[in-house]
């Protein structure tokens, strides 16, 4: 490790302790490390095992999983930071339904750090909400995530490239087998994506039905390589 790198780390550590501490959103102790403290961060369900490059499920050696071999998704690779389990699941629910929007910034920072620097897209597109649901909720958490990630990585954000044209029931309320049918033809893309590499951003990937339907809309408008970037991945034992 270089002397310059050590100096930068020491400066960063000094600045962090000068800034005001805030209560950790998980345990309540005072934290200089962001919205949650360092001990709670170590307890977060990070996806550190080898993962299927297509859907981010754990696989031996990081090989493509059997499901993706049989039914490849339209997105070619998935980046996920966490498993969708406690306490991360409660934080995502607090962001979406409790309007704890500062969490979107924290999640976006983690997601930006996790993305593959060797496979950068040309643009970033958030998972759209139907206008009726957007009016009810007041914000689109996926757009907040996408905006922060795009800014952090210096990528073009296309917040209105895709639209949700059918107000479908929430995927989380449906059995797995019905989710693909629920989002069929639910999206359209208004932007010309000819020859462009696209990253689709969402908060949670479970079956992948919504992201696959959105990828289909982007593909119809010329996208040549589509990635899925999500904060959390639901694992099989959590289904």
Number of individual domains: 2
Roughly what fraction of the amino acids lie in strands? 15-25%
What does the largest sheet look like?
5 strands, parallel
**CATH topology category name of the largest domain:** Rossmann fold
Low-confidence sequence ranges = 4-18
Mass-distribution shape:
globular
What's the quaternary structure here?
single chain
**N-to-C terminal Cα separation, in Å?**
43 Å
- Which percent range fits the helix content? 25-40%
| Nearest-integer average pLDDT | 89
Would you write up a description of this structure?
With about 240 residues, this protein is an alpha/beta fold. It has two domains: about 1-45, no CATH class; about 45-239, Rossmann fold, CATH 3.40.50. The protein has helices at about 5-20, 40, 65-70, 90-95, 100-115, 130-135, 140-155, 175-180, 210-220, and strands spanning about 20-25, 30, 75-85, 125, 155, 160-165, 185-190, 195-205, 225-235. The chain has a five-stranded parallel beta sheet, with helices on both faces. Helix 5 crosses helix 7 (about 140-155). The termini are far apart.
């Amino acid at each position: 490790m270089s002397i310059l790198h050590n100096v930068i780390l020491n400066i960063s550590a000094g600045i962090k302790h000068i800034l005001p501490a805030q209560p950790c959103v998980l345990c309540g102790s005072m934290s200089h490390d962001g919205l949650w403290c360092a001990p709670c961060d170590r307890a977060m369900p990070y996806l550190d095992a080898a993962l299927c490059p297509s859907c981010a499920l754990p696989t031996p050696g990081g090989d493509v999983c059997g499901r993706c071999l049989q039914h490849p998704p339209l997105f070619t690779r998935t980046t996920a930071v966490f498993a969708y389990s406690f306490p991360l699941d409660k934080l995502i629910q607090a962001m979406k339904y409790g309007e704890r929007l500062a969490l979107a910034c924290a999640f976006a920072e983690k997601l930006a750090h996790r993305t593959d620097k060797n496979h950068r897209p040309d643009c970033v597109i958030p998972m759209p909400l139907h206008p009726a649901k957007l009016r009810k909720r007041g914000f689109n958490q996926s757009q907040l995530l996408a905006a922060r990630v795009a800014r952090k990585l210096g990528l073009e954000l296309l917040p209105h490239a895709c639209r949700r044209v059918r107000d479908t029931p929430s995927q989380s309320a449906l059995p797995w087998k019905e989710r693909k049918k629920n989002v069929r033809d639910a999206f359209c893309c208004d932007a010309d994506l000819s020859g462009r590499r696209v990253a689709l951003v969402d908060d949670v990937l479970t079956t992948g039905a919504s992201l696959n339907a959105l990828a289909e809309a982007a593909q119809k408008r010329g996208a040549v390589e589509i990635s899925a970037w999500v904060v959390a991945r639901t694992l099989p034992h959590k289904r």
